[in-house]
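User: For a benchmark we're assembling, each entry needs the component sequences followed by a predicted structure for the full assembly. Here are entry 17's components. Please fill in the structure.
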Amino acid sequence: MIIVMKPQAKPDSIQKIVALIEAKGLEAHLSDGKDVTIIGVVGDKSQLLDQNIEIYDGVDKIVPVTESYKLSNKKYHPNPTIVKVGSTFIGGDELVIMSGPCAVENRDQVLETAIAIKKAGVQILRGGAYKPRTSPYSFQGLEEEGLVLMKEAQEVTGLATVCEVTSLDAVEAAVKYVDMLQIGARNMQNFYLLKEVGKTGLPVLLKRGLSATIDEWLNAAEYIIAEGNPNVVLCERGIRTFETATRNTLDLSAIPIIKSKSHLPIIVDPSHATGVRKYVKALSMGAVATGADGLMIESHPNPATALSDGPQSLNFEQLNELCNEIRPLAHLMGKKF
Amino acid sequence: MIIVMKPQAKPDSIQKIVALIEAKGLEAHLSDGKDVTIIGVVGDKSQLLDQNIEIYDGVDKIVPVTESYKLSNKKYHPNPTIVKVGSTFIGGDELVIMSGPCAVENRDQVLETAIAIKKAGVQILRGGAYKPRTSPYSFQGLEEEGLVLMKEAQEVTGLATVCEVTSLDAVEAAVKYVDMLQIGARNMQNFYLLKEVGKTGLPVLLKRGLSATIDEWLNAAEYIIAEGNPNVVLCERGIRTFETATRNTLDLSAIPIIKSKSHLPIIVDPSHATGVRKYVKALSMGAVATGADGLMIESHPNPATALSDGPQSLNFEQLNELCNEIRPLAHLMGKKF
Amino acid sequence: MIIVMKPQAKPDSIQKIVALIEAKGLEAHLSDGKDVTIIGVVGDKSQLLDQNIEIYDGVDKIVPVTESYKLSNKKYHPNPTIVKVGSTFIGGDELVIMSGPCAVENRDQVLETAIAIKKAGVQILRGGAYKPRTSPYSFQGLEEEGLVLMKEAQEVTGLATVCEVTSLDAVEAAVKYVDMLQIGARNMQNFYLLKEVGKTGLPVLLKRGLSATIDEWLNAAEYIIAEGNPNVVLCERGIRTFETATRNTLDLSAIPIIKSKSHLPIIVDPSHATGVRKYVKALSMGAVATGADGLMIESHPNPATALSDGPQSLNFEQLNELCNEIRPLAHLMGKKF
Amino acid sequence: MIIVMKPQAKPDSIQKIVALIEAKGLEAHLSDGKDVTIIGVVGDKSQLLDQNIEIYDGVDKIVPVTESYKLSNKKYHPNPTIVKVGSTFIGGDELVIMSGPCAVENRDQVLETAIAIKKAGVQILRGGAYKPRTSPYSFQGLEEEGLVLMKEAQEVTGLATVCEVTSLDAVEAAVKYVDMLQIGARNMQNFYLLKEVGKTGLPVLLKRGLSATIDEWLNAAEYIIAEGNPNVVLCERGIRTFETATRNTLDLSAIPIIKSKSHLPIIVDPSHATGVRKYVKALSMGAVATGADGLMIESHPNPATALSDGPQSLNFEQLNELCNEIRPLAHLMGKKF
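Assistant: Structure for entry 17:
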């Protein structure tokens, strides 16, 4: 931690800060510059957590030097994490595609989807049973009934399954039926829920919040891992910006940043990011070439009648075409698919 | 709802859309423009909820005409809502200030605060017992023990109290001790939690999400009111933008917009918005002059040792000074304080 | 300047940085932390301008300690700047309102406006002769003919005048006719133009760019002052965010931040910020109470037929009403109006 | 154009709007909905440009149906534009890479760069002679002297050249020396400058503004084409968002959007977007796979001593490696390189 003093800071004020640091058993290193004095703090700075140094007299600002996340930090865990979901491995040499409808609607829809996407080469079936919707008047999901259908689809096709959870009730139900729990963008900082999915030990797909920085995202992952569950996969799904041509702005630079700061795998969801079906293929290609470990692509037997997010869903012909175009690119990137 | 067709849309495609609309018992009004055809849909458009018209052939875009929120919409409820909290009324002719520490730390801190802020003229005591923190290693709150202390402060001073809730457990505990429940910015779209606080019937302080539009915010309020609980107070607390000189960007234009679109009261939290103590007074003045129904101001007996958000907290002398400056402004705005 | 090394930085890499710093005649202060080493650089760091230290081996990041703007920086010029425009003083104990049409359209419009706004108490007439418009097919302004009309209005009413300039040609014409030059939001980082208005010595109204940070804004002011022209007035006019309920998001926190970092006056333009007439009064009140030195309010004899930005313009009755409501607030804030 | 009336709009107000529309020789189509009336305007709506219908009584909002840009709009010009720069074609079946230093510093630097990048396979040399810099104290470019060096590099290597222009003076100088003019992000809405580069007839590289929407960007292109110069190449270089891990957020979704809305070529500049050298290669790959027509990559003989933007520049070994990795990907995408 570095403490930058104001230009006019009095020696007395500087001395008080130094005394405070030393009283906590830490060392203070002073650099007297032409304009300002800076104080480097050496030692375990958690000792200073109960001090708000920025409001002491003469202090201009505090500059943190180390990240607050440890368990999700590559500096301390240099080897990439590989997360096993069913019989699929995310974060290794395989490109993993998750696909399926935004919301589980009925048995036929789920089974038809599972069979079709498996044929296209997809490894994991997604399908929402608990839907966070902006309006209370939109379809909210089939809840446990939806989970049962996901389980059946898993048994029929052997595909692993992932479902979003939005409450403790949902977590308790989902662990009985699915292979991976998803934390949606709106719940990325629902810390209570993060702890609960952490406790399950199941693989967790952690979507980036609409306005979450990379650092906040890795801190959210930290909540899960701190419960003893290292099986976290990150999912970039667009951030909120001023641009309205797409629903959100897909931030593919998150891929090399995450690869540089963390050991966790990262996949990309171009369907939710753009909200527009015709942009999904181009951005899927872009994500894979940028180094993503996988993709999440919405698909539906009949997007025109999907109860949730139909306009961004591919039909199975389109999904199949996408998988066929992705395949040689995945191979070029050294990934199996 | 208006459906805008593409310039090159075929008569056949247009006919299909019209047929679909009419099949649902609605009317389709066609306007053939120089470049494009637009179709106005007349009738109860919830009939079209299971149709994703934007992916039909020839469709360019869908333009919604009416807002999706009804119960929080001024169009349908023109009279302002006044929310009673303890013996205080928010949204009427009173300016209401909530103050207290970000986090409840111990008995002395809470009681000292309650007594000091009451003297300054504050009507409601705030204090967090369940703290959503970016890092799992930050102080997470005293939980029920904190609620008990809030209750004691309420009994000693007669001040009403407000506490943030972050889970069903927290809701169940809080209803026993406090007068108003707060939904924090990070949980504004935790729809599960919104329903739960809706069911309690207690007044709810609904903070705006960091990246929530006004429409999404009013839809979140709709979730609470739809459970039969009309006692919602909105709280603007800054949105996330590119500017880093403040923690968030306080959006005071939210005040006249909310007053124009909704009947719900709105207060402003300049402490969390700026994250910087020295900007709090100026923006408190600005908020009141813009028409806010109240303020939420962090205060602490000793901000330098506050366990949460100390750098933005006022000490009691500063809070008192702020209240004294606000008073004549409140009167100028026609508000009692 | 502070150089933060990576945790795994080799002693050799650290030594290279130290040697580089010392070779430039500066001092390097090392602090060896538990995790990382930080190097404080003491001396005139402009010596390091031609070195990109962040790409040396082992370097994690560079933290600047002092701002890059000097002439607009309060640290070095603690007394507030007061800018004289005609016979009006901005930045002192007067609240200054600028008003008039977005675009000068014809003689009648300008004269009628000048007379009406003077009666309402406005001190400065605004009117655009060179209009930066998103589309090339929108009205682009009367150019020099418009300036001539502004001059006539100035002579008739005695009001000072301000006009936007968008090119060297416009600057050369405007200096002959108006009292103050305006740099619009889109040209805030048109550094060539900033230098040209700097050279004129005329007062400059510098609008904040749509996506400009406070620091970039003060650096833009620095360009003008560095040409020997200290007469800069800043104008907050909304920044670009995700919110679409207003055209831009008015950032009133810019007022206390500017007052804390700079000695320059700051006024607020709620008309362009919101783009909606009905929100202008509330935010004008908010701006004055937050501490603005003045306001810029669009007005027009007949907003319904204004050639530019009519929907946000007030008619003269509305402007008069706004001035009447502002007056007691200005007095409360200790300002003459 | 669609006019949406308020729920409580009186028949009289509706009638007034209809009369206004018909008085301009246009047709008004009414749809009376359950809640609101909407009015479709049919005919040449430029007739309504001098009317601000949104402020008429009873009007809720105006919804534009057609884009304001025509010449850059794919709807009216379905065939892709191919822009010839020197002997290179952008927008066709070739992947075009522009590379070179942010700023031209001296003869050796430019010639060494030109020779090295040509060897790597790059087709166009970039180099700034007029540098827009945030601070007036940063290096501002060699101006005409820099252009002369670019010309020499062009003659020695045969590479085409591109230089940024920031004023009419710069345009007048640049047309004598270089093959393509660049409009930088900060000048994207410097409409005066857009017209000037339009008049030259030279190919123009139009960078996206930091906070420009896709629509504003295409309107900026419209300014250039409207001067009779169809040779516009768009360049995505990151937009300003809340994320600080990169300098800007590269918006690769701009590629499919531009391909869907316009006929103009689009290239991507990952160097300026990220500001960080180590992220450039991954995002270059991503851009090409998403469908970019080319890349702009900063390179420098010795990034550590570059006078501008060194931290994001590649050295020639890194550039060569990037080109070698891009090559098979370009071929997979059906592009020559």
